[in-house]
Specification:
Mean pLDDT: 75
Shape: globular
Order of helices and strands: HEEEEHHEEH
Strand content: 15-25%
Strand order of the largest sheet: 4-3-2-1-5-6
Helix content: 25-40%
Number of strands: 6
Number of helices: 4
Structural class: alpha+beta
Distance between the termini: 68 Å
Largest sheet: 6 strands, antiparallel
Length: 167
């Protein structure tokens, strides 16, 4: 009877570990990003979105600031001199198209992780989307220079396009 109880506990533990490993990478953020994500609800219409691009660390500890882009065409750069700006319509259209092509299954298979490079800038993307049924879903992905190659090309294009807004 004791062996059966121990076996049951071991099976439950292994099952819990397997379930935790199969969860999307966006459920737990590395400590470097704790407190960096802002709670920003997308506009009310279905398909609306908010994209946050956050960077931390790096050899010099410098960063250009965090960026929040909304599907309504506004962008907020989070720096010591916070400011809101309008996005060029072509950039917004292109960014919106890329976001729509990055479907939920793509996000759940992103292998988000940071390497052991203590001198690398770590990047986090947070996409919050209001689905057609009105539900709001948030997807995350993060990387540094040593793990960037594992990121889907579409995700990196979204990141790069969003960064053009800062310039």
């Amino acid at each position: 009877m004791r062996t059966l109880a121990i076996s049951a506990v071991l099976i439950a533990t292994v099952a819990a570990m397997a379930e935790a490993q199969s969860r999307p990478a966006d459920t737990v953020l590395p400590p470097v990003f704790m407190g960096a994500v802002r709670a920003v609800e997308p506009p009310g219409q279905p398909g609306a979105w908010v994209l946050q691009v956050i960077s931390r660390g790096g050899f010099e500890g410098r960063r250009s600031g965090d960026l929040i882009v909304r599907s309504d065409g506004t962008a907020t750069l989070i720096t010591p001199g916070d400011g809101t700006t309008s996005i060029h319509p072509e950039t917004l259209t292109s960014l919106g198209q890329r976001i729509r092509t990055m479907t939920t299954p793509h996000w759940t298979t992103v292998d988000s992780r940071l390497g052991i490079c203590s001198d690398c800038t770590a990047t986090l993307i947070v996409l919050t989307v209001r689905e057609l049924n009105g539900l709001v879903h948030t997807h995350t992905a993060f990387w540094d220079a040593t793990t960037k190659a594992a990121m889907p090309r579409d995700l990196l294009r979204i990141h790069d396009l969003a960064l053009t807004i800062q310039r």
